[in-house]
Amino acid sequence: MKIVWRRESATVRDVYEDLLQRRKIAYTTVMSALKTLEQKGYLRAKQQERAYVYEPTQPKSQVIRGMVREFVDRVFGGAAKPLVVHLLEDEKLSDADLRAIQRELAGSKK
After folding, report:
1. Topology of 2-56 in CATH?
2. Who's near 45: CB < 8 A, 6+ residues apart?
3. What is the value of pTM for the model shown?
4. Angle, vertex CA 21, rays to CA 15 and CA 24, nearest 5
5. Which three-class secondary structure state does DSSP give residue 12?
6. Which of residues 84 and 54 earns the better pLDDT score?
7. Of 24, 63, 97, 104, which has fewest CB within 10 angstroms of its CB?
8. What b/e readout covers 55-79, taking b as 16+ CB neighbours within 10 angstroms?
């Protein structure tokens, strides 16, 4: 998704070549991932000549919100607290992250 958002539209080949710069990946894996994202409604495909061009169907923030919600539902039974506790226990949140979260919480209570 990040590659498609950055480019605004991309073919399987575009995404594949971008990913290949960072790690070895199969073309068919990229094709399957884009198809799955299309089936979930995150991307739409338009055929141009012999290739499909994928475009995001929703803004990045909306897609991330939906993906996180789906993950929390699937992994944590819909409860966000265990996810946050896990992140805190694993020390994946920096002090700057925690301060930013506190600001967000304070702002949402207004």
Report:
1. Arc Repressor Mutant, subunit A (1.10.10)
2. 34, 38, 52, 53, 54
3. 0.68
4. 85
5. helix
6. 54
7. 24
8. ebeeeeeebeeeeeeeebeeeeeee
